[in-house]
Amino acid sequence: MKKVLTILVLCVVALCLLGLVMLYSTAFKPADLPRFRLQLDYLAAGLLLVPTLVRMDYGWLNQRPVLWVMGTVCFVLLLAVFIPGVGIQVNGANRWVRGAGQPSEFAKPVVITLLAAYLARLTNSVCRPGALTGQAYQAAAQRKTDDFKRSFLIPLLVGGVPALLIFAEQDWGTATLFGMITLALLLLAGARWSFLALTLTGAVSSLIVLVAFNPLRLERFLVFLDPEGHRRGAGWQIWQSLLAIGSGGVGGHFLDGSLHKYGYVPEQQTDFIFACIGEETGLWGSSVVLLLYLGILLCGLHILSHARDRFGYFLAAGCTTAITLQACINVAVATSLVPNKGLPLPFMSYGGSSLLAMFICIGLLGSVAWHSHPGRVPLRNSARHQPSAVQLVMF
To answer: Dmax of the chain from CA atoms?
Structure first.
């Protein structure tokens, strides 16, 4: 497990270093340099935070008082963004709290922890260690899964309520990410496919209706369908991102050789930093970045499958999903594979709240790995927890 933890750390460090190089490249004006220095400060804080979380026994978080405090603070901060004088509104969106950054970013590890704790208690009540095996286990698990309120509705609310608050902040991308993380954990917990399909259908239908009556989001969707046709209007950012990535070719224009950063791709230091990566490092550099995220995914899968208990299993699964899924969405947006959602690229985009939240997820993932028992039978193969092969593939 130490080898896996080492690989995980190396992948994160490599992404952070490359992100700093790209961020420095986008700071072509003297006024941009303070932004680079601030990112260095957040990076230093994160590098101090991760070892502390890794050495801390993650089981400490699975205590009811701790969970209640975390949930309450998270809920209050998500509401605080709407309070005049406390919340900060930028471009019509209420996402920031004075002195506390973006609560929606810090809500990610909190909601993952709450869901992991609840689902661990739920599956523990299905089968205590050594109590049931084989068909008896499957029958007991199915009875618990059929309990719609306990096995589906409550955990759905745990992830859904923060998602709705974030949705009200006009941060649709992060709200969608919360929903996907919640459904992924419910899938791993063995929720019935009919429950998942019904929820997903309702969410997608509601989103379509809301997009139809929201001019900004509708415009983004139309841009996604035809970026070239809107390249001189609302699709300018996406079209320039595609041109930047395409112009990089195989080898790129070398570091600091990007031209599209000079105002052609707005907010390139945050949501569209992958465009700068593609232009300056080309196909090779972009592939390395994707392989580093793939390394995090594989390490996360190995860690969760060897977790010492079900809380660690769900905690590792949630953290791995949050990091890799957000990276996939960001790259997909920059390459116009999905509509613009405004999610930063983990460990690479500018933003202190996002960077610290991702470091917390890595710290929790590392804690599960550090406190796993070497040589024990992987949790996925034991009678204590038996996710199906389909669930593991879907994850």
So the answer is: 68
